[in-house]
Amino acid sequence: MIPPEDVVDVRQPPGQAMGKVAELWKPVEGTNKIMCTACARYCKIGEGQVGLCGIRGVHGGKLWLYVYGRVITGHVDPIEKKPVQHYRPGSKVFSIATTGCNWLCRYCFVGDTHIITNIGVLSIGTIFNLGKATDQREVHTVEGLLALTHRNRWRRIRRAFRHSYAGPTTILTTGDGAAVQSTPNHGIFVAGPDGRMTRNEAGGLRRGDPLVVPGLALGHQNGRTQLPLLPDGVPGVQGIEETGLVEEHERTETRIERVEHATYAGPVYNIEVEEDHSYTANGLAVANCQNADISQRRKVEGIEVTPEDVVRMTVEQGCQGLAYTYNQPTIFIEFARDIGVLARKAGLINIFVSNGYDTPETVHEMQKFLDCVTVDFKGSGETGFVRKYINIPNADPIFQTLLDMRDTKTIHIEITDLIVPQVGDSLEAARKLARFVHDELGPDVPIHFLRFHPDYKMMEFPWTPVATLEKHCAVAKGEGLRYVYVGNVPGHPLENTYCPGCGAVAVKRYGFDITGWYLDKDNKCKKCGTKVAIVGRLEKTSRENRFYGVLYHR
Fold this sequence. Notes:
The protein is 17% helix and 33% strand. By secondary structure, the chain is α+β, with helices and mostly antiparallel strands.
């Protein structure tokens, strides 16, 4: 649970009004604070403060949306990646995001990430375990350890942090085989011209980007750069200071070969390093945590665009619509709405990929432009799970948001549920979720049970067994849901859409691709004539390349 004092982030905001005055807020009677109504956290924000999302703050007695007019990334995706299976199948969508998030998705690494220290290469989890416990369970103080920073010099490690996390991660693999996995907002140093370095979010990086490798991290064996153990002669803390080993040395770079996105649930870690506020993780220069309360720092950054620019780019890419995704879209709802209204006028569709932790005020704005939403549950919304891994009291606001969206009668809804083995795989919780979907939203609302896949060695939890997903699907079908899917298991029969009348395959799928379409022009099963609840015919773009980058922030 989040202690009340952490609900509002009072660290340094941008320092000036920027972006645009927000609309979803109201004064808190009897105080000088403003309540933001863009998400169910309802942050109460004072002058000069910024909300937990990091992008909505108060200046001059008004709430500002700092990221209005700023997009951190733009990517063309298949609509099925969201995942959306029953709305405009085969579409290309232009996916955009800003910085910020209303989940506590801090800037952290998985536990076996290797850190170069003055006593050798240690896992970040080991550094935490070597530290001294404090009155904050998630914070340990560290003594006698130095880290190699992005400036290629040694600086003290002050603290180490560990907390539970469930959500997206980014895996960056370089051409020499090094790989690092972090939360998408973690800062990674990118090499620029004239020896300059910039700090970029991991989730915004792309293949070919040059990452900084501190010179002291380099080792060579058989012509290939490796991450070595430091030599025995590296001095300790006192020796470092006495020898003056603080000068910057040569650094090099390595380019990203592959960018992957995976869902992770388990402990994540960070460390705080004096002065340079960086360290070397799996051979790459990365930013550290600078805040004692380990809340993530949300930077206001991005490519400056107008709503008209975003719509123009969407049309230029031949997309049928826009997806507002990667972070929670309702925290920039005013910007999303202004884009969405123009997009609708241009004949484009609008899709939210949302955690659902919203308010009646945001749903009121959605109905002005939104066509489709995927609401992402984790662990079926079971209270113990969301308290521990997402830091929200319960999932009640998510269920209420679904009811409010249902009542608009204009928004197509699909549900996803990330099933995490051992901690978030309760069949009873899945049954309650499926019963809610059936009774309150209707039997034709699709539900996708997603496989948790660590995609990295020594993770806290294993892959979700396919048999577990199948049991969840059986539970949902037992509650009367007609369209139940397994996700993240390419080639599984439950990727397909089946006719609810005769059970024949109506739409054959492999991953995000549609490989067979067995419906007539009215979306009726060709075998028995039963209407299948899919909005729209198969789009011609289903056979095109539907996965490539367009723009991203440097």
